[in-house]
Amino acid sequence: MEGTNEKWALITGATSGLGEAYARLLASRGYNLILTGRRKEALMPLAENLKASNNINVEVVLGDLSDNKVVEQIIDSGSKVSELSFLICNAGFGNTIDFFDDTIQSQELMIKVHINATVQLCHALAPKIIKPTKTAMGGIILVSSLGSFFSSPNAVLYCSTKAFLNSFAKSLALALYGRGIPVQALCPGFTRTHFHSKLNIPSETLNNRGFIRWMEAEKVVLYSLKRLKLGKVIVIPGFLNRSLKFVGHLLPFWLYLKIVAGKGTIFKK
Questions:
Q1: Based on the structure, what is the number of domains in the chain?
Q2: Is the pTM of this model over 0.85?
Q3: Which domain, by its residues, includes 248?
Q4: Helix, strand, or coil here: 216?
């Protein structure tokens, strides 16, 4: 083995975006990595680059977290390392198809990836995570979304499953408090990642306008780790994002309903 330390970080959805940013930052700090993702052509070169440039060990688990066998492979890899410092559940996706136009099988994939896989990984690996020290950080990070604080007719399950992650993170934080293991639900707002290109969102829409301010993945990850060290559980990067959440919660739901849903039926004829 090339690396000399035994600190490990397990990151799901590490192919690009926030997952890749976490991987690069933790690799630069000397953490060995277990990286998971679906796209071999992107993940393998990243793993080799991080391994060579940081003198660390990097393991890769390829596959989709909607497949229970893949989740079991990830758990097996995480269980074998001597010191697991980080469990970062970042894998996730959006859906542009209306809830009632889509098949239930397709919609259930989001539940499997956002909720089932996250719960399985935390249940199996949280007991293995070592307590952070002054020289070595660690903990559990569940990548949620600013959308978790809102409801949307165009993202029914996305908002709902991300809201679950917030509640789950708070309960985990209570359960692991006595062991000194910090837990965080990271709720980024508009962040430039591969997430949007997979939804075929035009690149010109990823620009700042009005109250919308796009953040770079690297800045979001830095903010996340700083707040983790402070023990903050629900973390929203960006002042405007925190303001949107605050203002949104001032609205009574009946008013929010009229503004967001408007008139008419949700069922298309």
A1: 1
A2: yes
A3: 7-261
A4: strand
